[in-house]
Amino acid sequence: MQDLQGQVAIVTGAARGIGRAICLELAGHGANIVATDLLADQLDETVAKVQALGVKAVAEVANIAEPTVVDRLVETTIEKFGKLDIMVNNAGITRDTLVLSMSDEQWDAVLNVNLRAVFLGTRAAAKVMLRQRGGRIINMASFSGLSGNAGQANYAASKAGVIGLTKSVAKELAKRGVLCNAVAPGFIATDMTNVLPEKVKETAKMIIPMQRLGEAEEVARVVAFLAGPASSYVTGQVISVDGGLHM
Question: In angstroms, rounded to a whole number, what is the distance separating the alpha carbons of residues 70 and 126?
């Protein structure tokens, strides 16, 4: 399937986990990839895997919570590829603790990466896509942003903010052919969930209707749907990929 043949995508948080899976999935559909993260070595591994699929890919080590850095990332993409069709704001971090124990630093760190950077990436991409009169912006939300989660007040707030941002941007840009949607993963088997105690993971499986954790590739396939022609009349939506957890 090459329904994204020749298109250009920026994917943040691309060094591993869901971000890497998204890069590989979009590349498998024919898209060229600009992969960005702070983890240089793992980012190079992602790019090598993407290039092995026969498309173009470049690595950009960048702190996407800095406005000038994000603007430059988009400018570099235009310089190298001439356009930007798909912006995937995937990068995210956690600093989990109960709200009474949460420090200002833990709150700010998560909001800066998970929400501020999504806003910056969306704004920078939208400027280009509006001139092109077309494009797809796909933001990574979370089950926590839909339902909240004890010990994750900062993370849940950031992801709820992403959902509000996504819907607002979708309303602003729809008439110019720019679509903006969000994906809300549940418990996905990644480095972020692998550090959880085994008891926590087993408890999670018990409350997930499908009785298992998801795979990064299952999230990536939904991102590819939102990036491709099959979703041409879909905007402002939040698609849960959580085995039925959020019903």
Answer: 12
Rounded-to-integer distance, Cα 187 and Cα 206, Å: 12
Q: Quick count: other Cβ atoms within 10 Å of Cβ 93?
A: 16
Mean pLDDT for the chain overall: 96
How many CB atoms lie under 10 A from the CB of residue 111?
18
What are the backbone angles phi and psi of residue 195, rounded to the nearest 5°? -80, -10
pLDDT in tens, 3-41: 999 999 999 999 999 999 999 999 999 999 999 999 999
Cα dihedral value 144, 42, 39, 150, nearest 10: 20
Which residues have CB under 8 Å from 238's CB, separation 6+? 141, 146, 163, 166, 181, 182, 183, 184
The helix or strand, by DSSP H or E, that contains position 12, with its residue range, turns out to be strand 8-12
| Band of residue 1 on the pLDDT scale cut at 50, 70, 90 | low
Strand partners, 170: none
Active site residues per annotation: 155
Q: CA-based angle 185:167:92, to the nearest 5?
A: 40
Is there a contact between 81 and 8 (Cβ–Cβ < 8 Å)?
A: yes
CB 236 within 8 A of CB 171: yes
Residue (of 61, 28, 70, 66) closest to 42 by Cα position: 61
Cα separation, 68 vs 82, whole angstroms? 20
